[in-house]
Design goal:
Shape: elongated
InterPro entries: BTB/POZ_dom (IPR000210), KCTD7/14_C (IPR057890), SKP1/BTB/POZ_sf (IPR011333), T1-type_BTB (IPR003131)
Protein name: BTB/POZ domain-containing protein KCTD14
Pfam family, one: BTB_2
Strand order of the largest sheet: 5-4-7-6
Order of helices and strands: EEHHHEHHHHHEHHEHEE
Number of strands: 7
Structural class: alpha/beta
Strand content: 15-25%
Largest sheet: 4 strands, mixed
Number of domains: 2
Distance between the termini: 48 Å
Length: about 220
């Protein structure tokens, strides 16, 4: 059987593609649907980027995992719903740390994903005729930090309306760990950013707070 996956051609057997009956591949290749998804040459057509389909096909043939591009192949395995491949990939060091460590931590940080979207939206709005966009981040590690939030935000000289606040969270990881995650997740979308502590004016009459950090996007 020949397949056309996003313009890339593959040859294999029907039994290989149907190896896991509950997968999307097996579903696509039922007798009812095969005729409806063929290209002009009669090859089964799958409208998806075929760059990593070879690795998926190799697993179906030999149960061999790819040596690289683990996250990309995992994404394809999720799309095709090949559960044995998903499970094996999630046990690799590359994905185990991400799923069990980092993502479990981030799930305990309130509104983390929404805050990442807000940061990007604000930065893009401030990019007009500018080389950089700088946004203030407030990180409240503990409930005790949260209790000082009003005083801390009052002491801030910057625009208080655009401050994006993370936390508090119930996990052992530090403020630096959270900031590393913020940088990683924004850069994974193609942006160039840096994060540095915000140094406010010090006064003998008021307490200084280390909750604030400057996130800077570089556009060119």
């Amino acid at each position: 059987m020949q397949l056309n996956v996003g313009g890339q051609l593959f040859s294999t057997s029907l039994s290989t593609l149907r190896k896991h009956p509950n997968s999307k591949l097996a579903e696509l290749l039922t007798r009812r649907t095969t005729a409806a998804f063929c290209d002009a040459q009669g090859r089964v057509f799958i409208d998806r980027d075929g760059a990593h389909f070879g690795a998926v096909l190799e697993f179906l043939r030999s149960e061999r995992l790819p040596a690289g591009n683990i996250q990309e192949v995992h994404r394809e395995a999720m799309y095709y719903n090949i559960q044995p491949l998903i499970k094996r990939l999630e046990e690799t060091p590359q994905l185990f740390g991400e799923l069990v460590g980092r993502q479990q931590f981030l799930s305990r940080v309130p509104h983390y994903k929404e805050n990442i979207e807000v940061l990007i939206r604000i930065a893009r709005a401030e990019a007009i005729a500018a080389r950089h966009s700088t946004i203030m981040i407030c990180v409240l590690r503990t409930e005790e930090d949260l209790g000082f939030y009003d005083n801390a935000i009052s002491s801030l000289e910057a625009d208080k309306e655009s401050v994006v606040t993370f936390g508090p969270w119930k996990a052992a990881l530090s403020t630096k760990d959270l900031l590393d995650c913020v940088k990683m997740d924004i850069e994974s979308q193609g942006y160039v950013v840096r994060i540095e502590p915000h140094v406010g004016e010090k006064s003998f009459l008021s307490r200084s707070y280390d909750y604030f950090h400057k996130l800077t996007f570089s556009w060119w």
